[in-house]
Amino acid sequence: MREVLNILNVKIDKLDMDGAAARIRSFLKEDGPSLVVTPNSEMIAMAAEDAELAEILNSAALATADGAGVVLASKIMGDKLPERVAGFDLINRLFSELENEAYNFYFLGSKPGIVDKAVENLKQSYPALNIVGYHHGYIDKKMQEEIIAEINEREVDLLLVGMGVPLQERFLAQNLSQLKLKVAITVGGSFDVLAGEAKRAPLWMQKASLEWFYRLLQEPSRFARMLALPKFIYLVLKKRFLKS
Fold first, then answer.
1. What does the record give as EC number (predicted)?
2. What residues does 133 pair with on adjacent strands?
């Protein structure tokens, strides 16, 4: 039975990394498609003001806690989540586990040229991984129809979509029923990291819940977006203690 924690009306699965990976493997044995989302504090704060985004996130078969802020919120609510399950770490776990299995991957998103580099790098790290197609995320309606047809033609099992929030969620909400695949995962800016265009924080900063600070140092223009974290914590505290 699925166990979830409701944070600001967004359901988060009570799973650690092992459990999330196992859940996705179970989806691969079912008739799909299953939607997997990785909400962080910024996304949940956004969903608190965007009913459509909240509905999409809650329609997912799996929602992992992508961010220290989400785990902190669970502590505040007195129902601690097992651990942070970052989307980037989750997909790399899947690459490792599924490299030698007959599952087909398709990557959709990021700027032109970036997803190409991501695929090149992945083929070096996971040479046996079945990547059957990829395309950048700057698409119009006609191109979207062509990509959906290509995905279905190539018998894709796992589709990774990195278009940023909420575009990637809305894209899948609108098109998932037309896609003949097993699992669709929203991956945010993961293709940029896989391509070497962006760097993740050192492991010690990740463990110290300082990855947000590292990203701010890399991209000072993200400062306004970072304000979503204190806003998110405020909303959680308000919900927890004022019952509003």
1. 2.4.1.187
2. 106
